[in-house]
Amino acid sequence: QSMDSTLHYIHNDSDLSTNSSFSPEEERKSKVQDVVPQALLDQYLSMTDPSRAQTVDTEIAKHCAYSLPGVALTLGRQNWHCLKDTYETLASDMQWKVRRTLAFSIHELAVILGDQLTAGDLVPVFNGFLKDLDEVRIGVLKHLHDFLKLLHVDKRREYLYQLQEFLVTDNSRNWRFRAELAEQLILLLELYSARDIYDYLRPIAFSLCADKVSSVRWISYKLVSEMVKKLYMASTPTFVVDLMNELVEKFCRCHKWSGRQTFVFICQ
């Protein structure tokens, strides 16, 4: 009885604050499902209310964000409509720790929801995270390949233009960000055509090969060698020939010894 009265109070409160075009009754029906006790889901959804989080516990939104993929998996994609508004609320939370938690798990949620719901509901959130603080961006960067491979080919190609932006960070000393980018680019080679690799990924790889931090350069040498291998297997030999000519020109004939050393390491 105590729980029921609490939930009644919470729902009355949230219904008054809702800005939706639905009536309170319709809003309530959109959150109904039959997988778990409704009172349990209602309690979870009420905890993500921003005003409640500020007055009760500042960490509660972060814990809700951490649990959301598990809740989505339990309810199933047919009941995603129960969680959609809550997910969008958490994705725009003022605390970066909440957004960071969601950024690290968005690829898992994409697997649960499937390609249609991912394209409609997760891609806009993903795009928002790409422009967020570095602490949030690293979450999507670490699982960039896992997320992009779930998208349709045309949608996936749109992100080629944005990969260059990962070279720019809030703090230039954040070399792990660039190292992670190099690791992800190795995995992304399988998702793109030879032309896309040559036009978009090659310039980034060359930039990383000249990085000031040796750990970033080491991963980049592997990236370039994998790139050569991928382009060599392509039906058009032009790309791999041009890439190797550029390697010779840029590094083998470099007036600095470090550039010539880079060439040797890539060959190795």
Automatic annotation (TrEMBL):
Single annotated GO MF: protein phosphatase regulator activity
Statement: the UniProt record of this protein carries the keyword Kinase: no
InterPro entries in alphabetical order: ARM-like, ARM-type_fold, PP2A_Regulatory_Subunit_A
Repeat listed as a keyword: yes
Chain residue ranges for the region called Disordered: 11-32
Keywords carried by this UniProt record: Repeat
Transmembrane feature ranges: none
GO cellular component terms, A-Z: cytoplasm
Signal peptide (from-to): none
Superkingdom of the source species: Eukaryota
PANTHER family in the record: SERINE/THREONINE-PROTEIN PHOSPHATASE PP2A 65 KDA REGULATORY SUBUNIT (PTHR10648), SERINE_THREONINE-PROTEIN PHOSPHATASE 4 REGULATORY SUBUNIT 1 (PTHR10648:SF8)
Record's protein name: PP4R1 phosphatase
Organism ancestry: Eukaryota, Metazoa, Chordata, Craniata, Vertebrata
